Amino acid sequence: MTSADQSTPPRPPARRARRADAERNRAAIIEAAAVVFAEQGCAVDVREIARRSGVGMGTLYRHFPTKDELLATVLEREFTAWLTAAHQAAAATEDPWEALTGFFEQALAHQAGNRALVESHTATGAASRVCARHREAFIDELRTRCVDAGLLREGVTTADLVLLSASLSQVIQATGDSHPGQWRRLLRISLDGLSSRNTEPLPEPGSRAESSANG
């Protein structure tokens, strides 16, 4: 071994330490952002997120060059955790109707406690297109269970249930400050209308042209 070899410090441990620091910073940013977005909504200043996470703005921007990227990361994480819990709850519920109604109650309660989540849901329907497809597939499973058990009103489609969820999300956003529990009342009314006890045929959805003409 030469003297040059002996004097050269080992570099891999230092690089690993830097990577570990970067991972901790990224995790801290995401955790802080999740709290701040939930409290204040999508329009929050990222400086508040940096302050709460204990990192500088330069560090925040190295991990997330735009606020939209950070928001998407947080919302997708929230969605994944929620959907996992929703699947587990539905699997543990033998009654198909209770599984369906429990899904709506869980989803809307989750949104009611997270301003960014409900803002995103009312604006785009989900955190991302992939999230929207996963949610729609799950709703379709719940609907099919109710149909097979004869519990769902005839003619109710998966698209109806997806739209109902989006509509109630708008109720949460519109009444969250003045009447924060209003969505629960409207959910009960809506669920009653979905029951197979109602045998009156549902109106056809109609085309966009017909809707425009009637308007």
UniProtKB/TrEMBL annotation:
This is TetR/AcrR family transcriptional regulator. Residues 1-22, 195-215 are annotated as: Disordered. InterPro entries: Homeodomain-like_sf (IPR009057), HTH-type_TetR-like_transc_reg (IPR050109), HTH_TetR (IPR001647), Tet_transcr_reg_TetR-rel_C_sf (IPR036271), TetR_SbtR-like_C (IPR049445). Keywords: DNA-binding, Transcription, Transcription regulation. PROSITE patterns: HTH_TETR_2 (PS50977). SUPFAM superfamilies: Homeodomain-like, Tetracyclin repressor-like, C-terminal domain. Residues 23-82 form the HTH tetR-type domain. Signal peptide: none annotated. Residues 45-64 bind DNA. Pfam families: TetR_C_43 (PF21597), TetR_N (PF00440). It comes from the Bacteria. The keyword Cell division does not apply.
